[in-house]
Amino acid sequence: MKILAIESSCDETAAAVVEDGRRVLSSVVASQVEEHRRYGGVVPEIASRMHAEAIVPVTQQALQQAGMDLQEVDAIAVTYAPGLIGALLVGVNFAKGLCLATGKPLIPVHHLRSHIAANYLAHPQLKPPFLCLVVSGGHSHIVQVTDYTRLKVVGHTRDDAAGEAFDKAARAMGMPYPGGIDLDKAAEGGDDSAFRLPHPRVDGAPYDFSFSGLKTAVVNIIHNAGQKGEEVSTADLSASFRKAVVDCLIDRFCLAARDTGSCTLVTAGGVSANTLLRRRLQDICAQNGWGLYMPPLSLCGDNAAMVGAQGFYEYQSGRVAGLDLNAYATMSIEK
Q: DSSP characters for 123-190?
């Protein structure tokens, strides 16, 4: 089954053709990063307008790369939640238009489910059940995946997501948007014990995260040093902050793995590209005899191939939408 997939939840306009949920026939991504960088973050109105400009040529390119025309596609999958509502609506309405014109079935796909599905493209042997750490700019979840379309949230962030905390801390250090990648690079040359930073916990919720206080601690260090006329080592502060965030992620993830008896661990989302997180998880899983699956860097960020992968399993489970499909800014991954 060949699925044309559309992704427009934030600041990447993407289209892809995926076969049977596991094989990528084409994948095209048009990034808006350079446009939003001047504002220090994503501007929703600009994102929506740029999606509207890019979605047709991106889709045409994806079909061309796959060596197909629209009539040869079996179904059309689209991200419909969660994300920036204006951005989502561009993709949803475009996909509905294609389905109306061709009579192809429309498959609604949850954005976080598709991040998890990126691993199906990279690891043909991976099948549920497994425990997944979903970490991106807007989300930090520990998810128990019992089947391709049956998922349960075990833990989640109570405030900032890990990726959001990375970007905000990087911005406080003077790094351009998106700062998480630059912070990760700077941290490689720093001393991660140079600054003592908090490792927040949530009372009564052992698998939940909280990164707001950690981000504020970094901002306070920078402000206090500035008031005293002192310089702060960007490399050392980056390394210390990265270690604190990764410590929190791994501590909760491994605790959940032990408590649920999970022997297969998976990561997903943009922050799963973090160098230290990948190293630490590889070491811990090797020590405990756990299987570990992580997406390649090319599939960590937003793309449409992952939408096509999850779309295949949603379709197999009987999930097809009508032309009244709407977009939603927030929605549980369990729905």
A: -TT--SSEEEEEE-SS-EEEEEEEETTEEEEEEEBSSS-HHHHHHHHHHHTTPPSSHHHHHHHHHTTS
